[in-house]
Structure formats: C-alpha cells, structure tokens
Design goal:
Layout: H1 2-37
C-alpha cells in the first residue's frame, strides 16, 4: 500500500505543474488579447 501511495504522490506533481502552467498561459493569452483590443501594451 505504501508503494502505491508514494508512486501516486510522485506522479501527481507533474500533473499539478502542468495545470498551473496551463492557467498561466491562458491568463497571458487573455491579457494579450485585451491589450490588443484596447491598443495597449503588455509591459
């Protein structure tokens, strides 16, 4: 049982990291779209 929990714990971190990266990329794309609509800059 401990091996299964340890394996799951190790394998879940890449999934969590990928989700966070996806959220950051989506937020960046939204900000870029909003900036281009309002003739603004992303600085």
């Amino acid at each position: 049982m401990n091996e299964i929990l340890l394996t799951g714990y190790i394998l879940i971190w890449p999934v969590i990291s990928a989700v966070i990266l996806l959220l950051l990329v989506v937020a960046l794309i939204r900000d870029l779209r909003d900036a281009s609509k309002n003739d603004g800059e992303m600085i």
